[in-house]
């Protein structure tokens, strides 16, 4: 695909509003300490209710490709509109989450605090399709935040952040 066609295609896909989530995996940081690494995604979808399956996709050129492609367990953290800073952090900045950051729960380190919902998954199947690896996860546990129930979800549309707004019935 030529560069102009690729850009036009990307813009066309950008007209589909998506939610924003952070995938978290257990890792050892560059200093040898166990911690959590996060990656912001908007390529998340439910696949099946029985068994409970979800999917997300990982760019083959991602700097974090090897770590996330090999992770046998991972968390999906669905972000609220108030968590744009977390989305930015795990997209561009420091992808590590240490205990001192107070971003995750001690008893469930793959779960970020203040998210709208959280899914604990194990890798079920992977498939390279085009320039991405599609990762299917089987959901082992999940939770929805009661304290953030009324909050709007963080969205991504035409290259910009937004938030969900329910329409009147």
UniProtKB/TrEMBL annotation:
Residues 13-163 form the Flavin reductase like domain. Keywords: Oxidoreductase. It comes from the Bacteria. One of its GO terms (molecular function) is riboflavin reductase (NADPH) activity. Pfam families: Flavin_Reduct. Signal peptide: none annotated. SUPFAM superfamilies: FMN-binding split barrel. Belongs to the non-flavoprotein flavin reductase family. This is Flavin reductase domain protein FMN-binding protein. It comes from Asticcacaulis excentricus (strain ATCC 15261 / DSM 4724 / KCTC 12464 / NCIMB 9791 / VKM B-1370 / CB 48).
């Amino acid at each position: 695909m030529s560069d102009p066609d690729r850009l036009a295609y990307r813009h066309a896909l950008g007209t589909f509003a998506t939610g924003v989530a952070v995938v978290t995996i257990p890792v050892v940081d560059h200093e040898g300490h166990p911690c959590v690494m996060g990656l912001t995604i908007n390529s998340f979808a439910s696949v099946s209710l029985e068994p409970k399956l979800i999917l997300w996709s990982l760019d083959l050129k991602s700097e974090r490709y090897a770590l996330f492609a090999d992770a046998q367990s991972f968390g999906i953290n669905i972000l609220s509109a108030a968590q744009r800073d977390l989305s930015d952090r795990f997209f561009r900045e420091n992808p590590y989450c240490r205990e001192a950051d107070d971003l995750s729960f001690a008893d469930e380190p793959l779960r970020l605090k203040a998210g709208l919902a959280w899914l604990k998954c194990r890798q079920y199947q992977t498939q390279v399709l085009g320039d991405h690896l599609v990762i299917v996860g089987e959901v082992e546990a999940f939770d929805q935040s009661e304290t953030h129930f009324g909050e709007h979800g963080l969205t991504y549309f035409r290259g910009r952040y937004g938030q969900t707004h329910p329409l009147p019935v």
